Amino acid sequence: MKSMENIEDAENFEDMRKMDDTRDMQKMNHMENLANDMFPERWVTPEGILDEQQVIARQILYRGLNGRHVERFTVQSGQSYIFKPLTNPAQYGRERWMYEHVMPHLPPVYPQLIATSDQAEAPEQSWMIYEDMGQLEHHLCESTMLNATAHMAAWHVLPVATWQELPRVGHKPPIRDMLDELQQHQSATDELLRQLHLTLSAADRDRLTMLILTAEDELPLVLCHGDLHPGNLAEVEGRLVILDWEHAHLNTPLWDVYHLLDLSHPLFPRTMTPGLRARVMKVYLDKLESLGVQVERDSFAKWYDAYAIIFSLWMIRLIDGDLRNPDCVWPQEQLRNQWHETAATLEQCMEHLNGIRD
Asked: Name one GO molecular function term (predicted).
């Protein structure tokens, strides 16, 4: 794959004027709403929590890793917004940075940011307020996935030279670390494969290692959303919405592609088939080529299969640990479904890779 950084910003999207018009319309709508809700900072106390005196209704949407809640709240004007305190201390400041430096280069596929806490505030008191896009449905149909795929390809070709503050690691270990971990626990990995009636010979392991290392060397670092699973994708009245950019980082494109195609989540099950995977991959590579990035498709297919095999094996070991943990927050039935979903990805990608010659 040729370097993705040689493509000019203005050439990355097919219809820049339409993108700007949509963004301008959104800003006008928010300005009209905020005309009735001046000084949104007053909705939050100095301690970084919603002020009960300013809010007439609240709805918890989800709980973060630190126990803080993301909420929908309604103010006295009747307008509702989304309140997001810091839910993962490791990601402090990331999403604000993304909105300041990266989002202006993207089409309006993300919620508009209404207000933020002062940067001088302590991390545990930090917060962000977003537009409320209504009830989001996260049933990832094929059309939504293909739409997200084209947008993903577009942000993968954005030049990243000015975004060097972004980390090189996501919220899961790098793929090389996953590979090393599986090799260090080879007997446990082999037992897991036996449960699935699958095997990896020594030659298979060598091939996977070679493909992973080659992909890491050959592919460029690109802007990655970092957590592009079905729970962070939705469509609202025909508009694609991509949520939660706090895990954004620089990585090879395979990180985002795997999350979009095959990463399982206990709360957001989905069914992936070889046919759908192939269609999504074709849309992705076609979009890259339309933006001037030439891709050797057979190599990319092999790299992806190897990446998905290693990532899925690592995920199954992780889910196994959750299933044995009596204190795990996820229900057992959802974890078992996630286990089988990930196992299906593993089996499909192993079969596909076995059908591709080096």
From this structure: transferase activity
